[in-house]
């Protein structure tokens, strides 16, 4: 990464020390949780505890092998989902395991032998056991299939009565294919790879609260994903891809294929010539990469022992004890209604809340729950109406105040009294080395870090 690192000395700033880290809460995981996690890893990560036990019953290192296997699989799962790859089951890993997802494995690679021979693929939607009236369902499925045929050499043909390549069904519990649905939540749907008979078929769990918008589980998003399998695609480790295995609801996000989805389906079926001619108008969104030399951030905050970087729908988390920076979707940690493309975020450790800013609105969150009455207008914090958004927020834990950056100005907000103190000052006067306006700021390990474009500036207060 070509970030420029400057170590600057402060002028007339208050001495600061790294925030005391709160003790880690007890994980409180039960045996049932452990069992759930093992089953999850068996199902989605090919963890073989049962067969290991039988095969290696006579071997003395059996327990050790099992534990290592479990740990390695746990790490694989944690890596896939942007969690700390500790190999241990912690509360956060368990929470991600319990999130709604697709029923297929995350580690199986299909190769290119699973594809339909013809570029015209038929599908069939039944008339009964549908969660919505048939015309609505047909519209949703047609749109989900169109995502794929827009970019690849594929045509979809609907059949009314005869068996088709892709047979859709809403079913619950044990429905005869060996893959039992688990009532509401957990596994939402599964699909079979292209082949004869059940191959290509897509099953949705009828016990889910399906929706056509963002209130429940959005049928369009899940259908687009499952049709990807029905066409031969495996799960993608690209968290921005439709083929990522977990389901996250995101407000105001229109699902679309990512760059990697488009590349993968075109590898199987070739490129739709109309897609090439439209390239100048629409190109599939690429998931940002941390090694991109032009990467900039929307917001950055210290959070417990981590530094969290926000960009569009994504975030990276850097733990002080781990070298690896982990990526996830904002919505995987802070669900609806925290929006994407945030302007600023900060944590107030003493008062135990996080504030998220976007445009003229801000949200207060405590223990992952957005507080009642939010979002509010930033004018409630004491900004005049001419301030339309906040560029960055920097929280000083010891002194219990927060500095907000807006354009060329900065504002000091007294957290204890909940008031903006005095008038704003120019950033240039307070922090002469920092090029205003800035993108983000955070306090981490005794340094203030300012972010602007693809550069960051380390500001050392403790002289
Ligand atoms: Zn899937
Ligand atoms: Zn099934």
List the helices and strands and how they pair.
Blueprint: E1 5-9, H1 31-45, H2 49-55, H3 62-80, H4 91-97, E2 101-102, E3 120-124, H5 134-149, E4 155-158, E5 166-171, E6 187-191, E7 202-205, E8 210-211, E9 217-218, H6 219-230, H7 259-269, H8 273-278, E10 299-303, E11 306-311, E12 314-319, E13 325-329, H9 330-333, E14 344-348, E15 353-358, E16 361-366, E17 369-370, E18 376-377, E19 392-396, E20 401-406, E21 409-414, E22 419-426, H10 427-430, E23 440-444, E24 447-452, E25 455-460
Parallel strand pairs: 1-25, 2-6, 3-4, 3-5, 5-7, 8-9
Antiparallel strand pairs: 6-7, 10-11, 11-12, 12-13, 14-15, 15-16, 16-17, 16-18, 19-20, 20-21, 21-22, 23-24, 24-25
The protein binds zinc ion (ZN) (2 copies).
Residues 175, 177, 179, 190, 203 line the site of one zinc ion (ZN).
What does this structure look like?
22% of the residues lie in helices and 26% in strands. The strands form six sheets. Strands 2-6-7-5-3-4 form a six-stranded mixed beta sheet, with helices on one face. Strands 14, 15, 16, 17 and 18 form a five-stranded antiparallel beta sheet that branches. A four-stranded mixed beta sheet has the order 1-25-24-23, with no helix packed on it. With 463 residues, the protein is α+β, with helices and mostly antiparallel strands. Strand 15 and strand 16 (361-366) form a beta hairpin. It has two domains: 5-21 and 290-460, Hemopexin; 111-278, Collagenase (Catalytic Domain), CATH 3.40.390.10. Helix 5 (134-149) packs across helix 6. Residues 1-26 have low confidence and may be disordered. One zinc ion is lined by residues 102, 104, 225, 229, 235, 245.
């Amino acid at each position: 990464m070509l970030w420029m690192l400057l170590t600057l000395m402060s002028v007339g700033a208050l001495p600061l020390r790294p925030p005391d880290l709160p003790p880690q809460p007890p994980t409180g995981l039960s045996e049932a949780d452990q069992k759930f996690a093992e089953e999850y890893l068996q199902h989605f990560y090919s963890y073989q505890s049962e067969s290991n036990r039988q095969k290696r019953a006579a071997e003395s290192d059996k327990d050790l092998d099992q534990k290592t296997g479990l740990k390695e699989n746990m790490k694989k799962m944690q890596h896939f989902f942007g969690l700390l790859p500790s190999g241990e089951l912690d509360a956060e890993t368990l929470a991600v395991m319990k999130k709604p997802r697709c029923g297929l494995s995350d580690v199986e690679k299909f190769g290119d032998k699973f594809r339909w021979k013809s570029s015209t693929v038929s599908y069939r939607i039944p008339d009964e056991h549908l969660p919505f009236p048939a015309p609505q369902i047909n519209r949703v499925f047609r749109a989900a299939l169109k995502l794929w045929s827009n970019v690849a050499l594929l045509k979809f043909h609907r059949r009314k009565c005869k068996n088709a390549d892709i047979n859709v069904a809403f079913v619950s519990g044990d429905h005869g294919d060996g893959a039992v649905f688990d009532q509401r939540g957990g596994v939402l749907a599964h699909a079979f790879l292209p082949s004869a008979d059940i191959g290509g078929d897509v099953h949705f769990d009828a016990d889910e609260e399906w929706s056509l918008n963002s209130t429940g589980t959005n049928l369009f998003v899940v259908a687009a994903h499952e049709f990807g399998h029905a066409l031969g695609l495996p799960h993608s480790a690209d968290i921005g891809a439709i083929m990522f295995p977990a389901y996250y609801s995101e407000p105001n996000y229109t699902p679309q294929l990512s760059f990697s989805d488009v590349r993968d389906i075109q590898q199987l079926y070739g490129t739709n010539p109309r897609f090439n001619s439209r390239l100048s108008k629409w190109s599939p969104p690429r998931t940002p990469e941390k090694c991109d030399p032009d990467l900039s951030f929307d917001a950055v905050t210290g959070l417990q022992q981590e530094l969290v970087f926000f960009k569009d729908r994504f975030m990276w988390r850097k733990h002080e004890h781990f070298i690896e920076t982990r990526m996830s979707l904002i919505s995987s940690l802070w669900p609806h209604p925290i929006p994407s493309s945030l302007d600023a975020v900060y944590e107030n450790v003493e008062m135990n809340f996080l504030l998220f800013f976007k445009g003229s609105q801000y949200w207060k969150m405590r223990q992952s729950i957005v507080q009642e009455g939010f979002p509010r207008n930033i004018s409630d914090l004491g900004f005049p109406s001419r301030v339309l958004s906040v560029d960055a927020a920097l929280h000083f834990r010891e002194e219990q105040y927060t500095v907000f950056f807006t354009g060329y100005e900065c504002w000091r907000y007294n957290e204890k009294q909940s008031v903006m103190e005095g008038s704003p000052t120019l950033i240039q006067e307070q922090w002469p080395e920092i090029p205003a306006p800035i993108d983000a700021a955070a306090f981490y390990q005794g340094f203030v870090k300012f972010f602007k474009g693809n550069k960051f500036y380390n500001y050392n207060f403790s002289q």
